[in-house]
Amino acid sequence: MQAFLFDLDGVIVDTAHFHYQAWRRLANEKLGFDISEEFNESLKGISRTESLDRILAHGGVSLDDVTKEAYATLKNQWYVELVNQMTPADILPGIIEFLAQTRADGIKIALGSVSKNAKPILEHIGILSAFDAIIDGTKISKGKPDPEVFLKGAEELGISPSECVVFEDAVAGIEAGLRAGMKTVGIGQAEVLTKADIVRSDLNNFTPNELKNILFPEQ
Ligand code: BG6
Ligand code: MG
């Protein structure tokens, strides 16, 4: 076990509900329908443009490309307004301690997010320097569940995928990690993240060593 690749939204920071709030506002104010929290599960880990396509299909609405572009931009403006109000308190439980212990144990750390807002968010909450590599929405051409984001992370770190562990809150993200040939830790509910190697509600009171004993008992 030589590297950890972390998703951002819903794993490191509590931004998954900001994405939902901003999309819901767009659906309510511009599209004339509502989106449930359950439907929102299917948007986690999905790129901005693909998310809008899924929302439109869900509501049976079709739009021309110019309007779609304008709505995706509007959603992002609302999302950024919410994100800018964030404080370090929005860092999820146990993350700071887990990252510090990971570094102390000599395990490499990468970010693997499809968000184009990833870097400014990490800067905003003051943990950009915790990462040895950052792969975000500006560096990839295929969103999750494609493994590209995690394979690029492993490559940039110089670590074989079989020695990597992915931390994800999204079904599409767990799928991406598995397709990359990596072990996966689901952050959320076991009933939702059924394919993950293990699932925890958060990383509070958990250590890289405990994880190694579960995922790589032979090492
Ligand atoms: C993912 C989120 O991390 O990033 C998705 O789970 C989001 O909900 C995607 O759509 C793209 O984010 P952004 O910030 O580029 O719109
Ligand atoms: Mg996520």
Structure in words:
- By secondary structure, the chain is an alpha/beta fold.
- The protein folds into two domains: 3-14 and 88-215, Rossmann fold (3-Layer(aba) Sandwich), CATH 3.40.50.1000; 16-83, Orthogonal Bundle (DNA polymerase, domain 1).
- The protein contains nine helices and six strands.
- It has a six-stranded parallel sheet.
- Helix 3 (48-59) packs across helix 4.
- It binds 6-O-phosphono-beta-D-glucopyranose (BG6) and magnesium ion.
- 6-O-phosphono-beta-D-glucopyranose is lined by residues 8-9, 19, 43-48, 51, 76, 113-117, 137, 170.
Keywords, please?
44% helix, 9 helices, 11% strand, 2 domains, binds magnesium ion, Rossmann fold, six-stranded parallel β-sheet, alpha/beta, binds 6-O-phosphono-beta-D-glucopyranose, 219 residues, DNA polymerase, domain 1
Q: Uncertain segments of ≥5 residues (pLDDT<50)? A: none
First-last Cα distance: 8 Å
| Major sheet attributes | 6 strands, parallel
Helix fraction, binned, reads 40-55%
State the shape: globular
Structural class computed from helices and strand pairing = alpha/beta
Mean pLDDT: 97
Secondary-structure blueprint of this entry?
Elements: E1 3-6, H1 16-31, H2 37-41, H3 48-59, H4 65-83, H5 95-104, E2 108-112, H6 118-124, E3 133-135, H7 148-157, E4 164-168, H8 171-179, E5 183-187, E6 198-200, H9 208-215
Parallel strand pairs: 1-2, 1-4, 2-3, 4-5, 5-6
This protein binds 6-O-phosphono-beta-D-glucopyranose and magnesium ion (MG).
GO molecular function, one term: magnesium ion binding
Keywords: Isomerase, Magnesium, Metal-binding
Enzyme class: isomerase
